[in-house]
């Protein structure tokens, strides 16, 4: 896979054609059919069936998903455009530098990736997973067994790059984009939390200054013993399922180094019904920890006080959904996810736990 900088990257779906694909894939593309276009998400996706003649003259077919900033409405939102630029570029670097080294985890195949900072566009060309897989829907929940498979995938990801640091030369580019993104998303608090058309939130959330302080403290007090490579946004809508219904993860725009419990709580809370989460979350936690150790990560116990603290503290992982505008995700999805995350934060008294925890050491 190549990564380039170019000011000829498409910015609209109709610009993704045979001539551009020929150039970036280094294949003589003769025919392109756009089979689907999805723009109502943080990144747009153009699904393409492309044909080319191989060296013997036989026609070959590629099924592609071209992902990038293709929605002008989103790309001109003043509160989010800088954030989106960071996210698009991060995913490209993930597929170039990280994906080839992963083990015990399935990731989509990438054919090409390119970025142009001046144009504010970044594109990755992936395999079209829809030919052999279905996709998760975050508005719907998963079974307990599906969630166990999902956290096993996360354990593989985390164990592959556990205890790495962005302070090293190899991972210096892997700065924490998640914290920056969330703090950017808190700015229009009155619109995303207090407005009448938003989901119901606890009374204490009405205080923007208080909640911003809680979020900042959560970020500043991560336990360094549990840091590693995380997906950052592993909700059910960012999964692809094989024919047996087993989920794996896609969309690595927010991959970074953080607490592994961020990914764990974010996925299991968002993927289970509130009732199933309450009944089985310790079972899922134990399953995840066993897989983490089996795949080469540390041996941790769900009964360890620091593990329980990190688990409860990271219920705040779902705050991003509570801050997501309907222009970026459909309202019914935001409402479904907020119900699950808010319930988990209330159940585990997450806000008070973070407020009462010791401040980060200077």
From TrEMBL:
Tell me what organism the protein belongs to: Emericellopsis cladophorae
One Pfam family per UniProt? EcKL
SMART domains assigned to the protein according to its UniProt record, in alphabetical order: CHK
Q: What is this protein called?
A: Aminoglycoside phosphotransferase protein
Organism taxonomic ancestry: Eukaryota, Fungi, Dikarya, Ascomycota, Pezizomycotina
Ranges for domain CHK kinase-like come to 124-298
